[in-house]
């Protein structure tokens, strides 16, 4: 079976969740005997043709602002139209063109990555485009794949027709050995003596609420916010006004080892995402055994279950922090164990790869669905 993965900047992963997903899945499928190609953005100079057994195709797209990504996806779809049994597009921003490989007999999948049109970073025209692309994604592929049951339910509530659908999550790894704590010296931090947020600084990620709740808690441990502060949007400017000696905005951290060290050694981890399904950042926090305080919505509950506590308002965050800091070592260890068991049971890369392999090998008409155990939150730490 020849599989092509489109919709990413390419591998090895240096950017976001889709790139990490493409790398982890493609390499593992190749190790199981598959033939996988990942489409990559062409940069200046030469580029490798393979990576750990995965074929790489580099496509250059003209730089036309917001249209660049759509044009890149279309060029990839056109290039892949004849050569593969399955063409897997990550994201639905170019779903209107995903019929192209089907004209040449390829099976097309689309990964419905969250409720993209609800994100505040998009203007009215972009939101309208994503609404249209979501609707067309119900017609142009042979199958849609969502990373959470909540996303599938969202599609079912909005569209009268849905193609064959599979729910397959992203994956993560369990961190079994503590990263070198000396890496924290970059930010003058001590293990177990700071709180952490890792996200894009956008309104739907609840950073403002997290900061307000943290400040209200009176905690003596600093809050570290990892996220790009450039360009300084109106929302970022509002956030930076909350900056003080306790609230530290340290910008993006691209080094995987250093980011893992930041996560692993945090006293607590905040996850404020309100839009989307299985968020890679939340999975990585679970894999590190973090004590997680997450926004209370169906997506986060589906992923974290009892391994997190939850908040609706910033006042809830202050209460969660006080409960965490007054908890016993045994209570904290229980939550850490639950977090890592959650990854091992439902979100290991091995599980994700085996599920995709089963889908590739199954007849087109056969449905396939991942069903995590839904449990109540641990309200008290």
Automatic annotation (TrEMBL):
Keyword Transferase included in the entry's annotation: yes
- Check the record and name the SUPFAM superfamilies matching this protein: UDP-Glycosyltransferase/glycogen phosphorylase
For this UniProt record, the keywords arranged alphabetically read as follows: Transferase
Pfam families assigned to the protein according to its UniProt record, in alphabetical order: DUF1972 (PF09314), Glyco_trans_1_2 (PF13524)
Top-level taxonomic group: Bacteria
Annotated source species? Oryzomonas sagensis
Q: Which residues form the DUF1972 domain?
A: 4-172
List, alphabetically, the InterPro entries matched.
Answer: DUF1972, YkvP/CgeB_Glyco_trans-like
Please give the start and end residues of each transmembrane region: none
Can you say what this protein is called? Answer: Glycosyltransferase family 1 protein
Tell me which residues make up the Spore protein YkvP/CgeB glycosyl transferase-like domain: 242-355
């Amino acid at each position: 079976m020849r599989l092509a993965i489109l919709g990413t900047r390419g591998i090895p992963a240096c950017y976001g969740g889709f790139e990490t997903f493409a790398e982890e899945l493609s390499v593992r499928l190749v190790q199981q005997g598959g033939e996988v190609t990942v489409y990559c953005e062409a940069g200046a100079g030469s580029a490798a043709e393979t990576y750990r057994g995965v074929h790489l195709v580099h496509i250059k797209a003209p730089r036309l602002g917001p249209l660049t990504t759509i044009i890149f996806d279309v060029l990839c779809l056109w290039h892949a139209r004849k050569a593969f049994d399955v063409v897997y597009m990550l994201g639905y921003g170019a779903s209107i063109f995903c019929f192209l490989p089907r004209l040449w007999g390829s099976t097309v999948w689309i990964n419905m990555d969250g409720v993209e049109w609800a994100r505040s970073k998009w203007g009215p025209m972009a939101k309208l485009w994503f609404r249209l692309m979501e609707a067309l994604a119900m017609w142009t592929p042979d199958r849609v794949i969502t990373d959470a049951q909540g996303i599938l339910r969202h599609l079912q509530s909005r569209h009268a027709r849905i193609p064959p659908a599979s729910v397959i999550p992203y994956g993560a790894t369990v961190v079994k050995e503590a990263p070198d704590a000396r890496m924290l010296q970059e930010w003058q931090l001590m293990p177990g003596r700071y709180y952490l947020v890792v996200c894009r600084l956008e309104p739907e990620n609840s950073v403002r609420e997290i900061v307000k709740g943290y400040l209200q808690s009176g905690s003596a441990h600093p809050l570290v916010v990892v996220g790009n502060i450039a360009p300084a949007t109106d929302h970022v400017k509002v956030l930076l006004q909350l900056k003080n000696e306790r609230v530290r905005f340290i910008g993006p951290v691209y080094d995987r080892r250093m980011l893992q060290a930041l996560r692993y050694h945090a006293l607590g981890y905040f996850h404020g995402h309100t839009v989307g399904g299985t968020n890679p950042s939340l999975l990585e926090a679970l894999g590190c055994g973090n004590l997680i305080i997450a926004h209370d919505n169906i997506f986060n509950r589906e992923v974290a279950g009892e391994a997190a506590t939850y908040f609706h308002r910033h006042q809830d965050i202050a209460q969660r922090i006080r409960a965490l800091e007054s908890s016993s070592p045994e209570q904290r260890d229980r939550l850490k164990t639950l977090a890592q068991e959650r990854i091992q049971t439902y979100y290991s890369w091995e599980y994700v790869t085996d599920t995709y392999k089963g889908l590739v090998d199954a007849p087109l008409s056969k449905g396939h669905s991942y069903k995590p155990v839904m449990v109540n939150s641990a309200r008290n730490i």
